[in-house]
Amino acid sequence: MSKTQPGSSPRNIVVGVSGGIAAYKACHLVRNLKEHGDNVRVVPTANALKFVGKATFEALSGNPVSTDVFDNVDEVQHVNIGQSADAVVIAPATADIMAKIACGRADDLLTATVLVATCPVILAPAMHTEMWENGATRDNVATLRRRGITVLEPAHGRLTGKDTGPGRLPDPAQIAELVRTELAGHRLNFDWSGKKVVISAGGTREYLDPVRFIGNSSSGRQGFALAEVAAQRGAKVVLVAGATDELPVPSGAEIVRVETARELHDAMDKHSQAADVVIMAAAVADYRPADAAESKLKKGSSGTALSTLEMVENPDILKGLVEKREAGQIKSQCLLVGFAAETGDQSGSALEYALEKFRRKGCDLLMVNEVGRGKVFGQLDNSGWVLSETAAGEVESTVVEPGSKQVVAAQILDCVDGLARARN
Ligand code: CTP
Fold first, then answer.
1. Does residue 2 register a pLDDT over 50?
2. Catalytic position from the list 72, 189, 216, 382
């Protein structure tokens, strides 16, 4: 995970907290940012302090906390905090604070700080679904996004009380990762609205019997990070997830759960029909047992020898999508992105094997990473190359700088964006 490098100066992050019940989650956000080596200044509104006490924020951030422009006037805080910030994140951002910021008001320390800030400003809304969907809020969100403020999509789920819907504050760790993505220079500026993006993630499970399967160690993290960043750029995202680590559902994405390669194949076919971008980040099993037993196999049972398994090949989903595009069954301008996790050996490097795979698969972009010896699978950081074809038919590789899976996702999506623009 990308931490502030030892010896480099910590970044100044202002955590604004407005008055909603999710204010307690801001404590986890502050802790996460501090643990990554950043200097955090919490600026709550007066109403936020009705939910969480000043002492908690002071203890967690190690910095003084005030709410009013008339506190410590000699330090000119209402200007200094915003001027020296590398990022301002407000979590939770209520409908009221967004309305105030959209109007350019500055009647407390938090709104004054936002008005002064020239750094990335990220709002993580949390409110009841009715408030999120109200025309006034929609207009304010559109105004803020147009002005370059990042307004994150809220998560779907249980709200205060019995209702569920969009309006939940995303997981604080997700917010922190998105803040770091912006700090790494990748804006989440909602420029993908109107695009449909389908992403597969995780590993498949091929069952031998009802309780045993052949699987792999893919965590699903890269695919989930892609879904998160694409949704925060405004795309309509369908995330088709196989077996993964326990990961929060990316805010704003629809999730479809599958287990086997054939289920994944069916789901990808169904959802790719109107897609503008399809990304196959899933680790798909190439083979499955020829016959899955209906009841649990017994050691030494006659007929089925567990020591030898007959396997049959699974469909190549990515190659199939390339063929469907050629046959006009999916949009002709749909961009298809593959992943290749390679290890080098005596006969070739990881990149050389990936070049061969890129040609064989026929996709538009191939994200390559070198795996093995503790690299990539299950790790929080990633890096690699994105392969593409130039107009002259040469294969070009773009370096994906090391970073968190969200930062890598942003770089991959930048390559997709670049290709889409070049083809239009
Ligand atoms: N893939 C797929 N369907 C499969 C196997 C792989 O769509 N049955 C996709 C993966 O999601 C990935 C890309 O193809 O985007 C490359 O996967 P990989 O397993 O590296 O490629 P294989 O073709 O299986 O080649 P090999 O395992 O021999 O390296």
1. no
2. 216
Instruction: Output the six-digit token pair for 192.
Output: 């993908």
Residue 286 labeled ligand binder: yes
Q: Which atom of ligand 1 is nearest to the CA of 360?
A: 23
Q: How many CA atoms, within 13 angstroms, populate the side-chain half-sphere of residue 320?
A: 16
Evaluate: CB of 280 within 6 angstroms of ligand 1: yes
Instruction: Decide: 405 and 379 in contact? Cβ < 8 Å.
Output: no
**One fold for 12-183 and 196-293+308-423:** yes
**Does residue 318 have its Cβ closer than 6 Å to ligand 1?**
yes
**Distance (Å, whole) CA 102 – CA 109:** 16
Question: Could you tell me the fold of the domain covering 196-293+308-423?
Answer: Rossmann fold (3.40.50)
Going by alpha carbons, the residue nearest to atom 27 of ligand 1 is 286
Let me know if 216 is a catalytic residue.
yes
- pTM for the whole thing? 0.93
Average pLDDT over residues 238-245: 98
For a mutational test of ligand 1's pocket, the pick from 205, 262, 318, i.e. the residue with the most ligand atoms closer than 8 A to its C-beta, is 318
**Where is average pLDDT lowest: 145-159, 230-244, 287-301?**
287-301
Would you say 315 is a known binding-site residue? yes
pLDDT single digits (tens) 243-277: 999 999 999 999 999 999 999 999 999 999 999 99
Among 268, 277, 279, 284, name the best residue to mutate to test ligand 1's pocket (greatest count of ligand atoms within 8 A of Cβ).
Answer: 284
Q: Where are the domains of the chain?
A: 12-183, 196-293+308-423
According to DSSP, the residues that pair with 121 across neighbouring strands are: 88
319 is in an annotated binding site: no
For 335-381, the pLDDT digits (tens) are: 999 999 888 889 988 889 999 999 999 999 999 988 765 555 566 67
Predicted confidence at residue 386, as pLDDT, reads: 97
Topology at the third CATH level for domain 12-183: Rossmann fold (3.40.50)
Cα separation, 125 vs 166, whole angstroms = 10
> Is 272 close to ligand 1, i.e. is its CB under 6 Å away?
no
DSSP 201-252: ESB--EESSSS-EE-----SHHHHHHHHHHHHTT-EEEEEE-B--S-PPPTT
Per-residue pLDDT, averaged over 63-82, amounts to: 92
The pLDDT of residue 104: 98
